[in-house]
Please model this.
Amino acid sequence: MSSFADSVSPIDKEFSGDGRIRSDIAPFLDVLQNLIREPSVVGAEDSFFRVLRRELEEVGARVRYYQGILVAEGGRPHDVILSAHIDRHGLLCTGPNEFQYAAFISSNQSDLTGDSVSEQMMCTIGDRFAGQRVQAHLPYAGTYLGQGRITKSYVCPARRNLIFELDGLEFLQPGTPVSFLDRLMVADGAISAQLDNVLSCAILIHLFRCGFQGTALFTAQEEAGRSWRYALAWFQRHNLRTERLMVLDTSPFPTRQAAEAQQLVLRRKDASALFAEGITRELEGRCDDLGISYIHKDAWVEALNATREKQGTLGRTELGRLSAATGGAISGTTLQIPTTGYHTASETASLASVTAAIDLLSTFI
Model:
């Protein structure tokens, strides 16, 4: 099978000044394009966990699988702990030819407080899915069941959820996950797909391939507000505390110009808690040493709120929930890649930001 670098040769001039993809980034893009093709709908991540386990064990990582979390450890597991959620948005069949946004089905309503980025964006993205191709899979095995197309999507105020009408999957039974048919697109110096948060998963696998010896946590159901509970259970199981947990994710911006005004996004806090000051400053210093531009998303949101009547949210991250629940005993910081098209199948990030994230994290190898 040809490599990613071979397959994109007509457009690789977009990625660097000398007209070629950086040789150390091409293997990462191979990993990313393969992971993107694997379904991982919120609440039905089992088959994706198995894919990750195979990839990590092939490079010698010690891998343990617990409920809702896969843990990969190198030779120095306590040096730094990186975390990324593996779930992606999709649909769940909830009745005869009835489909709802998987993250917001009724079983998750107790976690919806109205101040998450996902909830505030629900009405904005509600009509973006018409014409989107989807595919159905068995919940645990991941076996392919068929394809269909979204004909209509809208917010139902009574059920507080996105409702979808599909053509082609009328035979599905309730409980069947339906993922967006996704492929990696590369053009104009950017990558596009449903990047949140398979992008971070691919980065972590790439780091292990390059010799990373710390610990990586891969969590389920972040989009449903539950991943922090699985991470917390792992920390408690092993009686661990840390202020060096680094959570990787994407960060939404309204326009490509706003997203590309900086390469990376850091945070000092979210709506739940303050983050660990030490490792946040450490990341700032490493960015400065590498010439990587960054902003603090919390400061960016607060500055924007000062200019508008409708207030934006700082968001509730996996890290903030962990820190709040443990009184700061488990804390750290976040590292995010700025994107546009958040929570769609065409979320876009600049390759400059992706390579900056890899360069920064490679300093922990």
Q: What stands out?
A: The radius of gyration is 20 Å. Residues 1-19 have pLDDT under 50 and may be disordered.
